[in-house]
Specification:
15-stranded mixed β-sheet; 417 residues; 15 helices; 43% helix; 21% strand
Length: 417
Amino acid sequence: MFSIFKMAGRVALLLLLSVVSSEINAARSPMSVDSVIARRMHARSIPVVDSNSVRFFYRGHDKFVDLFDAVRNARSSIHLEYFNFRNDSIAGLLFQLLAQKAAEGVEVRAMYDDFGNRSNNSPISRAMHDSICATGVRLVRFDPIKFPWVNHIIPRDHRKIVVIDGQIAYTGGMNVADYYIKGIPGIGDWHDMHMRIEGPVVREIQTVFCRMWRKSTGESLLGNDKYFPALKPAGNCRMSFVDRHSGKTSDVMRDLYVTMIDAAHHSIKIINPYFVPTHRVRKALKRAIDRGVNVEILVSARGDIPLTPQTAHYVSNNYMKRGATVYLFEGGFHHTKMMIVDDICCTVGSVNLDSRSLRCDYEANMLILDKQATDELVAHFEEQKKHSFIMYKGWYREQSFAHRFQGWFGNLLTPFL
């Protein structure tokens, strides 16, 4: 009799273990990654919106051709928010086109960051700014730098947003400059990503622009049907527009990246130009590597800003030693900011993985919970690997003392980079 009860107990235990194992496997299924991230977005009151479409642009030429065509077809409003408009031919063509649309009666509002404008070597001058405004384009500087100057260094508006007629939106990592087409002497081709988005999520992008416009001008556009028309389904893409508004959603980008990294079961793929993550993101990546996730990081072999490439190499080398695979891109400079998790969801936008983007500036990333769209970015990542070499053990030690010292020193300055 005792042996019967013993056998029954073993059977019950095996059944219990089978149920637990099934639940664990279900939790580890690819769909669960989407669910974890979506739940976290809802907890942060960030809408996860269905029925959208997304088109990716990997070259500046393709982005500007599509954007200019959409601007030409605008009927009621054009809203632009950029870190900077470089004073060159592509920006000149854009402002000519915007002036034409303003003359047709289309409301044109454009905003650029004053620090971003001054920090590039071909800024919009005061005279040029005034001449653009004279054409009917409402052009605004975000947070003009003035005495005592230092209090205007941070936070800055680093977003890249365009919304046309409240129905078509563009966002990503590209500003408006010739080098997105021509490259930069001494560095080579400039690689970046941008997106054209249609569907109900455009309302969220328009909302972010309108809030920033009100902050800069006092004019309220929110709640006006002219800028927020009814939006029909445009596809099957599930998306969230994640906005970092300084002082209101200050930790949202760190939370986004940590949530995605912690949700990963199989793989994480990262392309980022200034790879100097803050403490929370660094720890999340280490946890992922330690639990066996295949972490791949692609950074540029050369940089456009002093100290940043050396620091990115220093940080990447530490991850390589821990078990990540690091690719050093040699086909120019990669300004792309994207991360892919388990090949089923991704985020693309304006966020550099450095302290300034994650802790200080106004930023915007699109979270895409869609396998088909993510597959396209996986293919893009694999293509970029062909133009890179793998950081091998000993590579960093082979670099010059100056390179290694700058990397070490830059790492100490992580809170300020």
